[in-house]
Amino acid sequence: xxxxxxxxxxxxxxxxxxxxxxxxxxxxxxxxxxxxxxxxxxxxxxxxxxxxxxxxxxxxxxxxxxxxxxxxxxxxxxxxxxxxxxxxxxxxxxxxxxxxxxxxxxxxxxxxxxxxxxxxxxxxxxxxxxxxxxxxxxxxxxxxxxxxxxxxxxxxxx
Length: 158
Known about the structure:
Blueprint: H1 2-14, H2 30-40, E1 46-60, E2 63-72, H3 77-89, H4 95-106, E3 121-128, E4 133-142, E5 148-157
Antiparallel strand pairs: 1-2, 1-5, 3-4, 4-5
Helix pairs in contact: 2-3, 2-4
């Protein structure tokens, strides 16, 4: 009985602090951009956006480039809009941070902790309702050359 009471007191005191990140971050500006893209995907349609980043020094023509980004949208207007946002507001150096931001937009609750680094991975998350939405596949991995990363976001509409 005494152990149960102590456990209850501990849980009552600890529960507000179990997630030290809950409520201390504002909603990411990426979320509405991402949601607009995903909501545009029709049933039985697949749309993909691919963000490629490079961090490091390499020669491009007669210049030394320290980092670069490119985004592929396959001529799909909502994908083009998401790419425009990502080109302006995504990380070049930390590609895993971009994946974490997307996952935090798509998952309920406090999201992935700041302490978690994503270097490579594949994630699947539903978007929308059980009747209408998309299955979202997110892959982040090294690309062909050292320092290159690729983030692939694919939405299969239902």
